[in-house]
Specification:
Radius of gyration: 18 Å
Number of helices: 11
Distance between the termini: 20 Å
Number of strands: 0
Structural class: mainly alpha
Strand content: under 5%
Shape: globular
Helix content: over 70%
């Protein structure tokens, strides 16, 4: 598998993106957090005032833990669709990089790693806001960050796979037409138990469902059934999706 053939060269691609981000950090940092923080406050404190406990926890806790997962992963998705596509197609950054000793595989994984980093940055900000509004009162909730990182790699790889096949920016509209409904269906705003069993089984195939469930369990300190099995599935699916992204992007850059 190509994912196991990776060298440390991808860190140069990651560092290049970091330097660009650092140069205009205020512009890149603030706008993407207005929506998730507003959503967190509106859904958690606003709607939560009218909703009782769900799965044995206040709706504020239930929904904000879900928002932490999904909104963080959206940052990785946007970065590796619009961001990566712009660098590849209009700036020709990828062409310039592969003219050096770095390979297309290293370019692709560097992009995936940077997308996961953007996801982590987003989750840290939301995590602080959640602590301020009283969603959790224990530092062990920070154990959710490794899940966010794995989920960020997962979604960044999915997004980069789409970018490898896209020809125009407009093509991403079809992708996001699928992503946004999936966010609502994977347990972010209401439990999966509201669905028939056969629908639940289908939704558990989607890695996002495991990310949301594991993040919520670690934020609240409540166990979740099949925790290790869900974590193993998330790691396996992420590895396979990264492999797909590396192959598709390598083919795009070579062809």
């Amino acid at each position: 598998m190509k994912v196991f053939q990776m060298t440390t060269g991808w860190t140069h691609v990651w560092y290049r993106n970091y330097l660009i981000y650092k140069r205009g950090w205020l512009v890149y940092f603030l706008p993407p957090f207005i929506q998730p923080i507003g959503l967190l406050l509106i859904m958690g404190l606003g709607v939560g005032h009218y909703v009782g406990d769900i799965d044995g926890m206040p709706y504020l806790v239930f929904v904000t833990a879900g928002i932490l997962a999904t909104e963080s992963l959206l940052r990785a998705t946007f970065e590796c669709t619009y961001g990566s596509f712009y660098r590849m197609t209009y700036q020709h950054t990828f062409d310039a990089i592969i003219s050096t000793p770095l390979s297309p595989l290293e370019v692709a994984f560097g992009e995936i790693a940077w997308g996961a980093t953007k996801s982590l940055i987003s989750s840290v900000v939301l995590f602080i806001v959640m602590g301020i509004v009283g969603v959790f009162d224990h530092l062990s909730a920070a154990l959710a960050f490794p899940i966010i990182i794995i989920g960020g790699l997962n979604f960044a790889a999915i997004a980069l796979s789409v970018s490898a096949k896209a020809k125009e920016f407009e093509h991403f509209q079809f992708f996001f037409a699928i992503i946004f409904p999936v966010i609502f269906l994977c347990g972010t705003y209401f439990p999966l138990s509201r669905f028939p069993v056969y629908v639940q089984n289908v939704l558990w195939i989607l890695p996002l469902t495991s990310v949301v469930d594991l993040t919520r369990a670690l934020i609240t300190g409540n166990g979740t059934p099949w925790l290790l099995a869900k974590l193993a599935y998330l790691i396996l699916s992420t590895t396979l999706i990264i492999e797909l992204a590396l192959r598709l992007m390598s083919k795009r850059l070579i062809d």
